[in-house]
Amino acid sequence: MENGRILVTCAKGISPFLLEELLSLGYPVLTETVAGVSIEGTLEDAMTLNMCVRSGHRVLFHLASFTAGNQDDLYRGVSEIIWENYLHKDGYFCVTSSVDNPTIRDARFANLKCKDAIVDRMRKQCGMRPDSGPARDRTVVHLHWKSNECSLYLDTSGEPLSRRGYRKLPHKAPMQETLAASVILATGWHGQGNFVNPMCGSGTLAIEAALIASKKPPGLLRSNYGFMHLKGFNGARWKELRTRAGKAAEKTISGRIVATDIDPAAVEAAVRNAIAAGVRHLIEFGTGDYADTPIPDGGGVIVFNPGYGERIGMISGLEKTYKGIGDFLKRKCPGYTGYVFTGNADLAKKIGLRPKSKLPFFNGPIACRLLGYELYEGGGK
Prior knowledge:
This protein is α/β, with parallel strands linked by helices and 381 residues long. The chain has helices spanning 15-24, 43-52, 71-79, 107-126, 177-187, 204-213, 235-248, 264-277, 315-332, 345-349; strands at residues 4-9, 29-33, 36-41, 58-67, 92-100, 131-132, 139-146, 149-155, 194-197, 257-261, 283-287, 300-304, 336-342, 357-363, 366-376, 379-380. The strands form two sheets. An eight-stranded mixed beta sheet has the order 2-3-1-4-8-7-5-6.
């Protein structure tokens, strides 16, 4: 199978955790940027990555790079790619792009030129052309054009990998699945000890923790990927990879995962989502104030994701909450490492504990920090 460069993209700030994931999967890393990690591999490797990667956003298989100063250069370069080796002549594809070229005012125009070049070649080589449109549920071609450097990829994910398929009831302002997995990976927790998640909302952190602890690949939950619609897709091999990964997942875990929320509707959504993810049996859900969350003996990590005044609630009303989180961590969680994910530095000061770590993340456009607190007997410092 043809070897090529594979770019796994991610949200800003997540690439260090994505890099560690890829190394743990046995892939030597070629390059790392603020929003992605490149490796070398085949389209079959791309299938494995879509199934196994927790923190990545998309898996892009590199087809070609060329110099393009304007739209005519773009059309010519795209036309030279052997699209008939990858696309079905009677299929469907979508073009997405990231464009920063002085001759292009609207990226949609670049998408159109790219699409025209593909269908013109397919018509010439095959006698007919595939349909095209905006839907990303089948074959997706990605154009990256910065200055005069142009690269074309097959987006083997199609829909972003954050869409695991288990979020049946999202509730309000849910944390994206890939971000939740990255936050957990950043804590260093892989199932050893307990995982406690007060203010669990629709359960994304707890569910991702259960997937990590049980070694269940998140991609097992999805039934559709971009690579499935490529010419030459080996359905039997994909089924074999899925079966092997499913058998390797563990039915029990050593620690306990506890998730609570004061809102009964949130807990109901979390339970439904955990059932859909196949990890309901691994999570102890409860309804009540975060201060009443049971803390199992044995230590572990406790993760809070409170509101930070951007999308939910008013900042003044959150000050008391942040102070309460600090008191809770100090008084009730000795032997644990506490974490608070927040996008408001002023509110973070209300926690009243000195963080041992401050890891940068982005929740969409919002710059956030994952603050870590070592909690000792007698209170945190």
